[in-house]
Amino acid sequence: MFNKRTKIKDLLSWTPDGQEVTVMGWVRSFRNNQFIALNDGSTNQNLQVFAELGKFDDQLLKRFTTSASLKIQGHLVASLGKGQVMELKADHIEVLGDSDGEAYPLQPKKHSLEFLREIAHLRFRTNTFSSVFRIRHSLAFAVHQFFNDKGFVYLHTPIITASDAEGAGEMFRVTTLPFDNPPRNEDGTVNFTEDFFGKSTNLTVSGQLEGELGATALGEIYTFGPTFRAENSNTSRHLAEFWMIEPEMAFFDLEDNMNLAEEFIHYLISYVMKNNPQDLEFLSQRLTEEEKQLPQDKRSEMTLLEKLAFVNDNVFERITYTEAVDILLNSPAYKKKKFQYEVKWGIDLQSEHERYLVEKHFKKPVIVTNYPKDIKAFYMRQNDDGKTVAAMDILAPGIGEIVGGSQREERMDKLVERMEQMHVPADELWWYLDTRRFGTVPHAGFGLGFERMVQFVTGMTNIRDVIAFPRAPKQAEF
Ligand code: ATP
Ligand code: MN
């Protein structure tokens, strides 16, 4: 058996008194020909390994270059040096894999996030990215914990779909037809009956419609899977491939939906605060450090840790879309013509407006409800005013929209009428309409963009830095 190692994270919680241990990891640094800082990915903290002078062959010492991988057997002793309470006094050191220190792209200095994105295959080896990805893991785990504890069923909705009716965004086509010479109909259009699925198919933009099928039988379901949008927008909040969590609940109205979403976000934040304190501490300091380059008024008023605690200690502000528009129209920013995009009842809020509401006006997360029906999807429940739908978006500081959801239209006649108005083909969605035909119930749901949540918790400003291998326009390396 090879893997008789102790993880550094576990070992650092012990009281050193000569225990014999084996560790394995990668050299972060080697100084004075005696001290190895070893990292094994279990924690941001390195283990100091003491290689006593004269004990090891010079040829061996030369191989302790940055990122070389080592297997070390030794005794855990109290450290005499400053900065660590213990160190591993090495008895045997074996190089598992050499690393050419000259060629290794990560030097012991600060690299920009842009540079690290170009070497995304190695960036896990930095403190910043190892923290981000441990937290991402914790958040994913917490998602399942939260819903499992509430009795929700995890539903795997399909990644390849034939419905292009949802209208959540531009889609990627899935086909096995030869694109240089596809079979054609008489009118010249592509004949998809000859395609793999016998119809035109795409990568899913949302699992919601299938989620509703589950919820209207199982009661409460959630999905957690990849979604794809061919949006040609190069922003710090959009990816072409991202992960989304979509709970869907029978017997929920809009308020039930908001309550659940708020509780969920609080739960996720608390979970990470409890389980990843060192990673959060590190990222909080990193952000504060990074913001020192910004002018005073662009810096955050709170550290990342303070912000997370603040969000958890406060309830989210709840306002209607109409109130949001009024606030914007009466804002100093609007009067001084600081907004680039128009503010008017009936048009969608732009990210600058969302950020104003959250960061300047309320200074906390805001849930905006009851949007005009013409800027929202066909399945949202129509309000009695005839103008708005029971939608809710949650806006978070620094991120903008983090959740989009609604109470769904459960009334068959209203739904069909809306589909006609919005040119959504009812015949293609016969299966969706069956839920309204056979025992329809009030129900609601929302979608939380997982990467935006990871961004919020880690304080990473660019969404490409919270997913291992980002997919974005002109970017599919690794
Ligand atoms: P936005 O207005 O920010 O583009 P949206 O209105 O298109 O968002 P929805 O269709 O409601 O978003 O999707 C639900 C959630 O999925 C959003 O609240 C957001 O958190 C996330 N999301 C949407 N598009 C993307 C994307 N391209 N990359 C990453 N996350 C996304
Ligand atoms: Mn979008």
Give the helices and strands, then pairings.
Blueprint: H1 8-11, E1 20-31, E2 35-39, E3 47-50, H2 58-61, E4 69-78, E5 86-97, H3 113-118, H4 127-149, E6 153-154, E7 160-161, E8 173-174, E9 201-203, H5 208-218, E10 220-228, E11 241-250, H6 254-275, H7 277-291, H8 304-313, E12 317-320, H9 321-329, H10 332-335, H11 351-362, E13 366-372, E14 388-396, E15 400-407, H12 412-421, H13 430-437, E16 443-449, H14 450-458
Parallel strand pairs: 3-5, 6-10, 12-13
Antiparallel strand pairs: 1-2, 1-4, 2-3, 4-5, 7-9, 8-9, 10-11, 11-16, 13-14, 14-15, 15-16
The structure holds adenosine-5'-triphosphate and manganese (II) ion (MN).
The site of adenosine-5'-triphosphate has 17 residues, from strand 11, strand 15, strand 16 and helix 14.
Structural features, described:
This protein has 478 residues and is α+β, with helices and mostly antiparallel strands. The protein has two domains: 2-97, OB fold (Dihydrolipoamide Acetyltransferase, E2P), CATH 2.40.50; 125-170 and 205-465, BirA Bifunctional Protein, domain 2. The chain has helices at residues 8-11, 58-61, 113-118, 127-149, 208-218, 254-275, 277-291, 304-313, 321-329, 332-335, 351-362, 412-421, 430-437, 450-458, and strands at residues 20-31, 35-39, 47-50, 69-78, 86-97, 153-154, 160-161, 173-174, 201-203, 220-228, 241-250, 317-320, 366-372, 388-396, 400-407, 443-449. The strands form three sheets. It has an eight-stranded mixed β-sheet, sandwiched between helices. Strands 1-2-3-5-4 form a five-stranded mixed β-barrel. Strand 14 and strand 15 (400-407) form a beta hairpin. Helix 4 crosses helix 6 (254-275), helix 4 crosses helix 7 and helix 6 crosses helix 8. The protein is globular, with a radius of gyration of 27 Å. The two termini are 32 Å apart. The structure holds adenosine-5'-triphosphate and manganese (II) ion. Residues 168-169, 229, 231, 237-239, 242, 244, 401-404, 447, 449, 451-452 line the site of adenosine-5'-triphosphate.
